[in-house]
Amino acid sequence: MEFSVDGKDELLMRLVNYFVTEENYSPIVVNGVRDEIWLQNQEGPYKIIRINCNYIHNQEQLEYDLSKVKNVMKQVKKKTLSFTMNALNILLDLNEDVKLEEEKNISSISIKDVKDVNSKELKEIFPHINEKLLLDEKGLELIFNVTNNINEKTEKENKVFENIFRPKKIVVTHILVVINVVLFLIMVAIGGMDFSGSFLVKFGAMFTPLVKTGEVWRLVTAGFLHGGILHLFFNMYALYLIGTQVENFVGKWKFLLIYFLSMIAGSLMSAVIHPTTVSVGASGAIFGLLGAMLYFGYTYRVYLGNVMRSQIIPVILFNLILGFMMPGIDNTAHIGGLIGGVLAAMALGVQRKENSIQKINGWVVLIIYYVFFLYLLFGR
Predict the structure, then answer these.
(1) Where do the DSSP E strands lie in 95-148?
(2) 226, 267, 279, 334: the active-site residue
(3) What is each CA distance from 112 to 63, 100, 115, 138, in whole angstroms?
(4) Cα–Cα distance between 369 and 346 in angstroms, integer?
(5) Helical ranges in the chain per DSSP H
(6) What H or E segment, with its residue span, contains residue 26?
């Protein structure tokens, strides 16, 4: 017995297979819809592709249909913290009397059969779509191949994401915590509980006049010194909590680079804005790790959008506000470290989401940041 598939369903399967396997789109679960497929790719030419099999019989129904698309776009935009959102709305069963009109950020096209895929509008954005629609396959063969292709694609994607998010052995964070604690104990052994500015300067604290004389190493050493047991405790607790997450996501060497690049960025801003203040602490580098987490979360906002809104952004804002409210906290180092962390993470790239243009932009802006503050520090 020969098995046949409805022409509309067959076209739907071909389109879904193409967008998922060739254009890296992934399904969106949208509650309350029937006979519709929603796909998303934050790096795609359209961030959302919606394929609708429902019959659109008049202009009023089309307007209602577009309102549904806009509503889902708003939800995805909010979830993914996206600044812009555009959609391709593919209608597989549109009455010929219904006219498609221009809609802001929504491109609607009617496709009734495979021939319509060759339309100029679609071919300009997806030039190889017609070659990848499995045109020679029909019936059970089509269903089998589409299912198999999507399952293979999903399995491959799951392995990649599992590798990124699975717990890994943390090494660098622990080493950094130990170094900070050991240096603090050495300071206590030599000077007791004397954490005066002059004593901290002897160990390598940030002090702009000395940096200007050539002691640029203070931009780094200051990040490993602390002005008291509570200062050390809170910073090391934060470093442990945040550092383990960032190291797990980006890897040991990228983590180490982000840590030091952020530390230097924070120290530079502090040295310029507070030229007469003695400054110590790992918080500039820790804010850099928060900046890296912010960039990582935004890059994977499809998966971490809720975490960004509920955890990462509130923690950053709370600590910055706390820094402005409490005396004795060098918030300029925090802000500089945060900026340095975002730029360093952009420059080094995120696994599987690496973009050469973004990486180049990250390095360029980071270098401009360094040159600008070095000029303010030494050029005046």
Answers:
(1) 106-110
(2) 334
(3) 20, 14, 8, 17
(4) 14
(5) 7-21, 59-79, 120-125, 139-165, 172-191, 197-203, 208-212, 218-221, 229-250, 252-273, 283-299, 301-307, 313-325, 331-348, 356-378
(6) strand 26-27
Active site residue 283: yes
CA 69 to CA 86: how far, in whole Å?
10
Same domain, 217 and 341: yes
Q: What tokens were used for 144? A: 């089998």
Query: Containing domain of residue 287, as a range?
Result: 172-378
* Residues 368 and 239 reside in one and the same domain: yes
Q: At 99, is the secondary structure helix, strand, or coil?
A: coil
- Is 82 within 8 Å of 42 (Cβ atoms)? yes
d(CA 371, CA 159): 41
Which residues of the chain fall short of a pLDDT of 70? 1-7, 32, 134-137, 139, 302, 305, 354, 380
Residue 300 burial (CB count, 10 A): 22
Residues 251 and 167 sit within 8 Å (Cβ to Cβ): no
Residues 156 and 284 grouped into a single domain:
no
Task: Identify the domain boundary among 165, 191, 212.
Answer: 165
Catalytic entry in 82, 279, 283, 310: 283
pLDDT of residue 134: 65
Q: What pLDDT was estimated at residue 1?
A: 41
Number of compact structural domains in the chain? 2
pLDDT of residue 233: 92
Query: Do residues 225 and 280 touch, judged by C-beta distance below 8 A?
Result: yes
Q: Residue 13 belongs to a domain with what CATH number?
A: 3.40.91
Residue indicated by tokens 């698309």: 69
Final residue before a domain boundary, out of 139, 165, 191: 165
Gap between the Cα atoms of 337 and 6, Å rounded: 59
Which amino acid does the sequence have at 307? Answer: V
The CATH number of residue 259's host domain is: 1.20.1540.10
Three-state secondary-structure class, residue 48: strand
Q: Are strands 48-52 and 87-91 parallel, antiparallel or unpaired?
A: parallel
